[in-house]
What does this fold into?
Amino acid sequence: PAEKAQVAAAAAKAAAAAAEAAAAEMEAKRMADAEAEARRAAEEVHKTDSAAAKISAAAKISESQPSVDAAKTASEEGAQLSDKSKPTSDVLLEAAETSQ
It folds into this structure.
């Protein structure tokens, strides 16, 4: 009887150890899955940040574009005005009138 009890106790200990090992294995898998999900999320954030930066840069370029176009137009108009054989004061007066 005592021998049977020892065998039963050893079997119970072995079963408990096997259950513990299975639980540890499941926990390790859960942790690995969580780490992989965190990496995917970080990559998505990086992609989103990168896209946002590109959009922001494009917005800044498009915001500055009208002033670039206006400066180019004014420069072209100034060149056309100065090509005419008029006194400088007349050219400046015309340029001032056209800009208003």
In short: Residues 2-99 form one domain. The two ends are 112 Å apart (CA to CA).
